[in-house]
Write a structure and sequence with these properties.
Blueprint (H helix, E strand, L loop, with lengths): L14 H7 L8 E5 L6 E7 L3 E2 L4 E2 L5 H4 L8 H6 L8 H6 L9 H4 L3 H5 L9 E2 L12 E2 L22
Length: about 160
């Protein structure tokens, strides 16, 4: 019996499999600030105007690139380039040859496990168009770039092999 598609190298996935690999956490939809001097990035709790902040999912995923011109498409090349992708990101994990965590919907069979594990942005962020009038620095948070305490880390199965 062949291995599940999510265990195969990223470059072998078709579009449907690629999209299914996303856990729907919404962390990549948060605005980031870049320090002009150091290049260091900081996450904020401000989300794209298309993000449904209660579900943590894009409200118009099919048309997001047209409606939000600076929306970034995550593909195999960008996964390697976007160092800001959260440590929980399935694309990032699989690129490093790591397995998916137990809370990932492909493993658990339940999209609600992403939120239960504290990985989802649902209920924790505000859309940019509904944000209070504060200095940008007041929106900076660390949690999107960290592995949540409640979320189990995937157990490594031997040495990591790039996908």
């Amino acid at each position: 019996m062949p291995a599940p598609f999510w265990q195969r190298p990223l470059g072998t996935l078709d579009e449907r499999e690629w999209e299914a690999l996303c856990d729907g956490c919404g962390r990549c939809c948060l605005h980031k600030l870049e320090d002009e001097d150091t290049g260091e990035l900081a996450f904020t709790w401000l989300a794209c105007r298309l993000l449904d902040c209660e579900t943590g999912r894009c409200s118009d995923y099919a048309n997001r690139m047209r409606r939000v011109p600076d929306c970034l498409k995550i593909d195999i090349e960008s996964v390697a380039r976007f160092e800001w992708l959260p440590p929980t990101c399935a694309y990032r994990l699989r690129l490093r040859g790591e397995p998916l965590p137990d809370w990932h919907p492909l493993i658990s069979g339940d999209p609600g496990t992403v939120r239960a594990a504290g990985v989802s942005v649902a209920g924790r962020v505000v859309r940019e168009d509904a944000a209070p009038d504060l200095p940008l620095i007041d929106f900076v948070v660390d949690w999107p770039g960290q592995w949540p305490r409640a979320a189990s880390r995937p157990a490594r199965r031997g040495p990591a092999k790039p996908s």
